[in-house]
Amino acid sequence: MFNKDNEVKKIGKNFKKEYALVLKKIKEYDEIAIFRHIRPDFDALGTQFGLATWIKDNFPNKTVKVFGDNHVTFTPNGLFKETDKENDDWFSSHKFLAIIVDVGDQKRIADPRFLKADYKIKIDHHPVTDKIFDVDITNTKMAAASELVLNMLLNFKGNYILSKEAAKNFYIALVGDSGRFMYNSTTAHTFEVSKILLNSGINIVNIYNLMYQKDVDDLEVTKFILNSYKVSPHGVAYYVLNAEDLVRLKITTERGKENVNLFSNIKGINVWCSITEDTTEPCYRISIRSRYYTINGVAQEFKGGGHAQAAGAQIKDLTELDSFISRLDELVVTGK
Question: CA angle 209-111-52, nearest 5°?
Answer without folding.
Answer: 50
